[in-house]
Amino acid sequence: MTFRNWAAAFATVFAFAASAHAQQFFRIGTGGTAGTYYPVGGMIANAVSQPGKIVATAQASNGSLANVNAIAGGSLEAGLSQADVATWAYTGTGAFEGKGKVTDLRMIANLYPESLHLVVKKGSGIRSVADLKGKRVALDEPGSGTLINARMVLAAWGVKESDIRPDYIKPNQAGDKLKDGSLDAFFFVGGAPAGAIAELASSGVGIELVPIAGAQADALRKSSPYFAVDTIPANTYKDVPAVQTLAVGAQLVTSAKLDTQTVYEITKAMYSEGAQKTLAAGHAKGRFITRENAVQGVGIPFHPGAEKFYKEAGLIK
């Protein structure tokens, strides 16, 4: 190889290495593929990716708790989390009691309300959470926000985990078991419509949503103010009437270790006009991902990059 060829080859390798180094990889932890986090996370990744600068990817995971732990451990740059889980992690309370605080956890944006679903077969006779005693109930997988919230709901109605026959599986597996009669009910916390529940309702198996309302729900909201009253509208799922339930905010969180400029660019891209149109058209919950909603229900500090954008937009002081 002549010196000129060697120099050219070296320059090419150097330029490639510099380009690769300039690119910021931004992995977003989502949830199971049958839930709402996965498609919404994918839409956000597409919206914030910038050729040559930021390569964002959505990764399936076990959900909120798993995402927060992965961010703390450095295997994810960001993740979707329920508002309650993010707050518990930062303050070392709730599910993080005795496990230490995740003090580097930072907020990028509050996204949309996640509805608490309690799904049963039509005509099951299960009309209330109290009716779950003695039943086979799926509570979702360890590491999910659903499991934590399901336990809170059961406790609010005076139902112990030992009072039911629990199963710890994802909602799509729970839907299959409900269909074949080996399960009586399952919980799921996520933006409505959730893929697994919509698929189940459209499969010819009649389903019902059990209300999570009344005095017990009011007491739960009083003790855990991140819960809000919510209604899943009629026909969100095929032939299912409107039902009152509770909701928590879905949030995009990250680590304080990420540099300010990267998070600023990502936040700015997510709320650009083009991204807003894409998000609104891509999923029923995408229309809630607005600048105004981004700063609502926030229980942990904003990342400086996100804070910079919201200050420029006049959303926070």
TrEMBL record:
Residues of the signal peptide: 1-22
Residues in coiled coil: none
Pfam family name, one: NMT1_3
Keyword Membrane: no
Keywords tagged on the record: Signal
Domain of life: Bacteria
PANTHER family linked to this entry: SLL1037 PROTEIN
Protein name per the record: TAXI family TRAP transporter solute-binding subunit
